[in-house]
Amino acid sequence: MTHYLDFERPLAEIEGKAEELRAMARQNEEMDIEEEAAALDKKAATLLKDLYKDLTPWRKCQVARHPERPHCRDYINALFTEFTPLAGDRNFADDHAVMGGLARLDDRPVMVIGHEKGNDTKSRIAHNFGMARPEGYRKAIRLMQMADRFGLPVITLVDTPGAYPGKGAEERGQSEAIARSTEACLQMGVPLVSVIIGEGGSGGAVAFATANKVAMLQHSVYSVISPEGCASILWKDAEKMREAAEALRLTAQDLHKLGVIDRIIDEPLGGAHRAPEDTIARVGRTLTDMLSALDGKDRATLIAERRRKFLDMGSKGLAA
Amino acid sequence: MNWISNYVRPRINSIFSRREVPENLWTKCDSCGTMLFHRELSENLNVCTSCGHHMAITPRDRFRALFDGGVFAEVAVPEPVADPLQFRDQKKYPDRMKAAQKATGEKEAMLVAEGEIGRTAIVATAQDFSFMGGSMGMYVGNAIIAAAERAVERKRPLVLFSAAGGARMQEGILSLMQMPRTTVAVQMLKEAGLPYIVVLTNPTTGGVTASYAMLGDVQIAEPGALICFAGPRVIEQTIREKLPEGFQRAEYLLDHGMLDRVTPRTKMRDELITILRMLLREPPAVKGDLPAPEPAVLEPATPPGDTPEDGADKT
């Protein structure tokens, strides 16, 4: 059962009808519906193309949050071999909103770290919907520093609504953990590359994405605040999220123009959730590409370039 | 006394000097409600003389009280691109900026200065909550980088006073990028072996807390300051339960190991001098030798708009 977003409703109707016809035909062999069903398929394909041709920023947020969008675990399973998860922050707990460990990408050993949202009610709760607590950031810091000691490149896959706003998280230093994670990113003498695969939610995202190279999937978003949060503060009305999404410039396309990200990875027609394998393969190629561009650079250069990149960021606005 | 200060004194004032006196001679304490005479209040650095509640103080007033003799030089901050996203909510961002500039008389939400405290040369930077909630955008990022660069250049410690609701939404992703940018600034100080002291004031929240404001060598907070990543309202909505008394206040953070000290504003200057001189391996300050800020230095040290350029004095 495909999950349709609200703006995909017309598409759901057509695809539903085609499916109904085919189901009827399976029961009654004399019926010849193939022509009619094919026409509906064609109509659906045109509509899909139209819908995704020019997604508004708010619709991109919806696509980025699509429950069937491939998540961190899907990428790790498909792209890496010998993935060996490493757990715990050695202080308090293991945060399941963040997964990470040693793995090989094209046989090359790397450290891979990412937010995992889960894909059904049970796993979503277990992964806290991808909202990390301080332990998640502290685990990531530990893994990054380990990678740095052993000269392994680090890959981060970002997909979080934001850091978890909870009582315990605050008491255990959510802000300090995020600040230290960003600091750890900046101190690494090994290549650090990052892909925003879904939602890049504020500080919780930047703590992993302060990287030498940052890529974004075509319909992923990256923002200082969620459109709903922004709308409730500036418009005093959370229902104004469409306007807020527009104003925040949170799409991959705008962020590329602003020089905040380095590249955009195209998604298959209809979004990553319609062709997860294809999407994952595209991300894999980009990761290999970004890493090989950093090959041969020494520690000092990697650190200096990463710093320079962020210090220079924002020197031109959208108008430029 | 309360009855007199709350009722009789304002009444008498209103009868005798309705014309001459500005209306804001008296300030009501947000916490205990006592009416406080403005001169007494500003001499006490906007700390309520009755209950000790810390009210907001502008960076300029803070620096006048902090630096020896109230003398400091402003450090220039590189101007960022104005309104980089052409942001518009119910108002246009440039209009909000103009309103904030008019209301505060300041250009932006952060002031960088250098001078001496207890004969120790430092660079200091302070955030202005009255300017769009002290929010961190490109300018604040540039200010912190400028402060760190100046500190490194002159081999001086940096003292940062934070006060902000968080990132400036009107600069979108570019405000978020100030988290890594300011972290680079902190790293410059650490590599140069220079002390970086953060004084967290009410309120310090969001992306500001999750970057430069939590990376100090020594973390001091003013009493009662709200310090958090996610604000209490957001948390209450998420977990649907009442938060404990004093949650996310300075004293609560101290108890949870997130701060080194909670120090009243009136003792902050002495404490900063003590800590800095030890970190710099200098001999103890001789208290008698310190020109404590006289009430007179709370008056503008230099006429507004005519502040000495950076490095013009005290170097």
Count of DSSP H/I helices of chain A: 14
**Number of continuous helical runs of chain B:** 10
Q: Largest inter-chain interface? A: A-B, 53 and 53 residues
* Helical/strand content category of chain A: alpha/beta
Strand proportion of chain A: 15-25%
Give the gist of this structure.
The complex is a heterodimer of chains A (320) and B (315). By secondary structure, chain A is of the alpha/beta class. Chain A is 50% helix and 16% strand.
Structure explained in plain terms:
The complex is a heterodimer of chains A (320) and B (315). Chain A has 320 residues and is α/β, with parallel strands linked by helices. Chain A folds into 2 domains: 6-53; 61-311, Alpha-Beta Complex (2-enoyl-CoA Hydratase, Chain A, domain 1), CATH 3.90.226. Chain A is built from 14 helices and 8 strands. Chain A has helices at residues 9-27, 34-53, 57-64, 72-79, 121-126, 134-149, 167-171, 174-187, 202-209, 227-235, 241-248, 252-257, 276-294, 299-312; strands at residues 80-85, 98-105, 108-115, 154-160, 192-201, 213-217, 221-223, 263-265. In chain A, strands 1, 2, 3, 4, 5, 6, 7 and 8 form an 8-stranded mixed sheet that branches. In chain A, strand 5 (192-201), helix 9 and strand 6 form a beta-alpha-beta unit. The mean pLDDT of chain A is 93. In chain B, 34% of the residues lie in helices and 16% in strands. Chain B is globular. Residues 296-315 of chain B have low confidence and may be disordered. Chain B has helices at 2-16, 38-43, 59-66, 93-104, 138-154, 172-176, 178-191, 232-239, 250-255, 265-279; strands at residues 26-28, 35-37, 72-74, 110-117, 120-127, 158-164, 196-205, 218-221, 227-228, 261-262. In chain B, the strands form 2 sheets. In chain B, strands 3, 4, 5, 6, 7, 8, 9 and 10 form an 8-stranded mixed sheet that branches. A two-stranded antiparallel ribbon of chain B has the order 1-2. In chain B, strand 5, helix 5 and strand 6 (158-164) form a beta-alpha-beta unit. Chain B is α/β, with parallel strands linked by helices. The termini of chain B are far apart. Chains A and B meet through helix 7, helix 8, helix 9, helix 10 and helix 11 of A and helix 5, helix 6, helix 7 and helix 8 of B.
